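Order emerges. One example.
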Amino acid sequence: MSILLLILRLIPTILTAVQALEAAIPLPSAGKAKLDLLLGMVSDVYDSVPAMKNDIGKDHLVSLIQTIVQRVVAVLNALGIFHKTTA
């Protein structure tokens, strides 16, 4: 249950991070680079906080965040908040 609560608490932060990356890097077709940047930062934070290793495995955390980010982006795209452009 504590992992579920951890992930639920992370959702607002993930949403803010996705929006911040989109604002900072508004390039068309840069989604993979932005996702890689975000997941890399998550990995770096995980590595620097030893206590996290007791709660969840790194690969599991990164995978969960990746799935959440993909859902967030899909919803924001569907709502027209993120605008797809052609390069």
In short: The first helix runs from residue 2 to 24. The mean pLDDT is 88. The two ends are 44 Å apart (CA to CA). The chain has three helices and no strands.
